[in-house]
Amino acid sequence: MWRASVITLYPEMFPGPLGQSLAGRALGDSWALDTVPLRDFGHGRHRAVDDTPAGGGPGMVLRADVVARALDSLSPDGRPRLVLSPRGAPLDQRRVRSLSAGPGVVLLCGRFEGVDERVIASRHLEEVSIGDYVLSGGELAALVIMDACVRLLEGVMGKTESAVSESFENGLLEYPQFTRPRLFEGQAVPQVLLDGDHARIAAWRQEQAEKQTALRRPDLWASYAASHPPPAGRTKKPRESP
Ligand code: SAM
């Protein structure tokens, strides 16, 4: 079973939202979650886990020895060990898919000014960011990573195809979605989606995915276009369906 272990000062934050909906129903069947309370490994009567930054400056830093003891309390089982950090490699769907395909993950949640650099190095932690903004702690980032991984586990999502056509899975953003009513405030569902011609629907969706990606995410579009070269003599533009 896919297993997530979260090292945190706030174990009561888990499973939090992951106790609901798809992930919540699958918890205990397709995946397991345990928390390692960092405070248990703290120093002295007050179980201190942090100290002032060497060299001065604001805030506190999680101590290397405390974090090391917490990490070492988990038996080595080959799971990747990640520390949540705004300095880390940006999380993307490719990394999510590879984490989800493995045995699980160990997630270390930072707090305050972060984690002493030496334990990141000595325990070979992979630094991962969930975006270019600063949260007050790694717990929400850990929940984000687990949610993204768990929904890809076998049997968690209703239909496996829904994962395949989603944003980022093929290097494009997803095409726009519509449902009932057929007319909403003067806007109709595109007729092509109602005609039942699956080849034309697929072509329309591909065209829309390409257009939306080129418009909203020129960075994604550039790498998609580079890996899907147009026929000789033509420049790559978002496709027009027949
Ligand atoms: N002083 C740090 C810096 O400037 O990079 C920010 C520390 S932040 C207040 C406290 C903790 O929140 C971090 O150690 C990390 O675990 C978590 N965190 C904050 N932003 C994050 C992000 N974008 N992605 C992942 N974790 C984040």
Write up what this structure looks like.
The protein has 242 residues and is α/β, with parallel strands linked by helices. It folds into two domains: 2-150, Alpha/beta knot, CATH 3.40.1280.10; 165-227, tRNA(m1g37)methyltransferase, domain 2 (Trp Operon Repressor, Chain A, Orthogonal Bundle). 31% of the residues lie in helices and 17% in strands. It is built from eight helices and nine strands. Helix 3 (93-101) links the parallel strand 5 and strand 6 (104-108). The longest helix is centred in the last third of the chain and has 19 residues, at 198-216. It is elongated, with a radius of gyration of 22 Å. It starts with a strand and ends in a 15-residue tail after the last helix. The relative contact order is 0.13. The site of S-adenosylmethionine has 19 residues, from strand 5. Homodimer.
Secondary structure layout plus pairing:
Layout lengths: L1 E7 L12 H6 L4 E7 L12 E2 L9 E2 L1 H9 L8 E10 L2 H9 L2 E5 L8 H6 L3 E4 L9 H12 L9 H5 L18 E2 L2 E2 L9 H19 L1 H10 L15
Parallel strand pairs: 1-2, 1-6, 5-6, 5-7
Antiparallel strand pairs: 3-4, 8-9
This protein binds S-adenosylmethionine.
S-adenosylmethionine binds next to β5.
SS-based class: alpha/beta
Radius of gyration computed on alpha carbons: 22 Å
- Order of strands across the main sheet: 2-1-6-5-7
What is the 3D form? Answer: elongated
Task: Report the order of strands and helices.
Answer: EHEEEHEHEHEHHEEHH
Q: What is the helix tally?
A: 8
CATH topology of the largest domain: Alpha/beta knot
Largest sheet: 5 strands, parallel
Name the CATH homologous superfamily of the largest domain: SPOUT methyltransferase, trefoil knot domain
Ions, cofactors, ligands: which are bound?
A: S-adenosylmethionine
Proportion of residues in β-strands: 15-25%
Low-confidence stretches: none
Binding site for S-adenosyl-L-methionine: 110, 130-135
Organism: Candidatus Raskinella chloraquaticus
Region (Disordered): 208-242
InterPro entries: Alpha/beta_knot_MTases, tRNA_m1G_MeTrfase_C_sf, tRNA_m1G_MeTrfase_TrmD, tRNA_m1G_MTases_N, tRNA_MeTrfase_TRMD/TRM10
